[in-house]
Automatic annotation (TrEMBL):
GO terms for molecular function: DNA binding; DNA-binding transcription factor activity; phosphorelay response regulator activity. It comes from Photobacterium frigidiphilum. SMART domains: REC. This is Transcriptional regulatory protein. GO terms for cellular component: cytoplasm. It is found in: Cytoplasm. The modification 4-aspartylphosphate is found at residue 56. PROSITE patterns: RESPONSE_REGULATORY. InterPro entries: 2C-system_Tx_regulators (IPR051271), CheY-like_superfamily (IPR011006), DpiA-like_HTH (IPR048714), Sig_transdc_resp-reg_cit/mal (IPR024187), Sig_transdc_resp-reg_receiver (IPR001789).
Length: 225
């Protein structure tokens, strides 16, 4: 994938430089330019078409939210990560309506900023490789991890780690028997069957009969559609 071109819009030159240094440590990122005012940003956007903008809300001659509205009105294919000291709900709601990829409060914790950028890069890679999407793809791109039952809610003999391994199998296999599943996760056939039957009871899988090479029927598990 080509480099992600980033513009930083931040009125404080020192903070902008800290953001630049932070992002410069991340592979795949290219800092195209920095702007310290609303008008400087407008001028940059007339000649540049960045992939991502790190955008402050409070600028000396305007609002970052106005810049966000302008980008959306002109249908520029630019993603926006808002970095702001604004802690009011109205600003957050307007940012969300504008489709920001993240909203980070000042003072910035740089590990949090790096995490956000890495997730953004991952989502772009995922998007580029997708054809038809599934709900799990959408959840991943919107940074919403799939909710599973906690360990305390799981029945005896079922743990989250092994359960997630079994779930992962059905992302690359359309149909599996208990024996095949056990071989793939490094568990016995009996253990694999226990997890597969649990996923049937939770509505994630369904079973049908499959006939092996010797003609003996086996339960074959498929993802419920």
């Amino acid at each position: 994938m080509s480099l992600i071109r980033v513009v930083i819009v931040e009125d404080n030159a020192g903070i902008a430089e800290l953001h630049r240094r932070c992002l410069s440590q991340i592979a795949g990122i290219e800092i195209e330019a920095m702007a310290h005012s609303y008008q400087e940003a407008i001028t940059l956007f007339e000649v540049l078409n960045p992939d991502l903008v790190l955008l402050d809300v409070q600028l000396p001659d305007g609002s970052g939210l106005d810049l966000l509205r302008m980008l959306r009105a002109e249908k520029q294919e630019t993603d926006v990560l808002l970095i702001t000291a604004a802690r009011d709900v109205d600003t957050l709601q307007e940012a969300m309506r504008g489709g920001v990829v993240d909203y980070i409060l000042k003072p910035v914790v740089f590990s949090r900023l790096k995490e956000s950028i890495h997730k953004y890069l991952d989502s772009r890679v995922t998007m580029a490789g997708l054809g038809a999407i599934e709900q799990s793809d959408v959840d991943a791109m919107l940074m919403r991890p799939k909710e599973h039952k906690s360990t305390a809610q799981l029945p005896k003999g079922i743990d989250n780690v092994t359960l997630d391994k079994v779930r992962e199998l059905f992302k690359s296999h359309t149909q599996l028997t208990a024996e095949q599943s056990g071989q793939l996760i490094g568990a016995s056939r009996t253990t694999a069957r226990r997890y597969l039957e649990y996923l049937i009871s939770s509505g994630e899988l369904e079973a049908d009969l499959s006939y092996g090479t010797v003609g003996r029927p086996e339960r074959a598990y498929v993802k419920r559609t």
